[in-house]
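#struct-pred
JK: can someone run the complex with adenosine-5'-diphosphate? inputs below
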Amino acid sequence: MENPFKYGGVVRGTYFADRRSEIAELKHEMKNLNRVFLVSPRRFGKTCLLLNLIDSLKRNGFACAYIDLNAFPDIRSLAAALTSGTSKALETNKDKLLKIFSGFQRLRPKVSVDQDGTISAGVELAFDEREALSALLEGMGHAETLAAKKGKKLVVIIDEFSDLEKYNGYTMEKALRSEIQKHNHIGYIFSGSEQSVMLSMIRDRKRAFYKLGRIMELGPIKREAYTNFILNWLKKGEYKIGGEGFTRIFDIGDDVPYNIQRLCNVMWDAAAESRQIEPSLIEKLPIVIARQDSPHYEMLWHSTSQSQKVLLIALSKDQTAKPFSKDFQLTHRIGPSSSIKASLDSLLKKGILYKTLKGRYCFTDLFMPYWIDYIKKQIR
Ligand SMILES: Nc1ncnc2c1ncn2[C@@H]1O[C@H](COP(=O)(O)OP(=O)(O)O)[C@@H](O)[C@H]1O
Ligand SMILES: [Mg+2]
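RT: done, structure tokens with the ligand placed:
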């Protein structure tokens, strides 16, 4: 039996744990064609949730288009993707689709042949970059008209929405808002991991998306439901659990779904022979993962300066620490605060640390402190 605890990509169907209430809530919002901002830190499972939601919405007769802003460096490519995505969601007949694509003013049809020989149609910008935003709005407006004509509810999901700022900023935001507000046949979900960016986009009166929709903060998967999911698979694999069970996994993984999947995946393999899961095994799992990911951590490590390394070592020992406190600086013999500030800023920029909304500095990758601990022991 293959390892059922998948990580890294999108998990679907029986490999997808719980999220029932979140899916029900989002479905309800989409039935009413509302606008929802889905916010959580990275790796909490937004993308997985959204793609499973789409599966479910499609079964209920909705048309759905999914766009990940990460994949589109400029408005030109975004306009093309969003327009062809929404049109394809609403029209499956290829001839009719091509006719739709030929009807745009600023976009023109583009037919391409995939590697496996299938022909697919899309659109591209017909004019230069200056027309890109107008083309995007034309495409969005058309989606609304087509949804009305087809008598269908369309759900448009924009993932990594906090990336919106990389386009031409406020002009784009304002134009999008006024377009979206005209739509009566489209429900929108905007999802993003940069919590502070997302929240300031929505809560700041001066920003275009102020109160455009409700905010749904995605929390961890509830332990009880996640435990049942894990237990079910372990039972299918004929694993036995000793000791107190595996609540510890949730503590070690800080309840972040990516971490939990990773830990369970390693646990499944580590106990493949004995089919026995003991508390001592669970304690070893993060170290196994730290070693598996060692090349990645080495690369990150080499990208840091000496003082950043010293700070990372100190933080890895004491993750709840306040780096600007006298206590912390004396214990680890680092400082002054100004140089710590510079190091922290650089580590945030590199993505090694992230700052929580409460102002704490945490490792982006929870297993990295285990790796730091491991190499320190090697050096000694
Ligand atoms: N409901 C779930 N069931 C199982 N695994 C999940 C679930 N949600 C998230 N994961 C795990 O977490 C990883 C990251 O999820 P993802 O949806 O990419 O997070 P986000 O979009 O919030 O950054 C996935 O690759 C998967 O391993
Ligand atoms: Mg994501």
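RT: quick notes.
Residues 223-292 form one domain.
Residues 132-150 form the longest helix (19 residues).
JK: thanks, will look after standup
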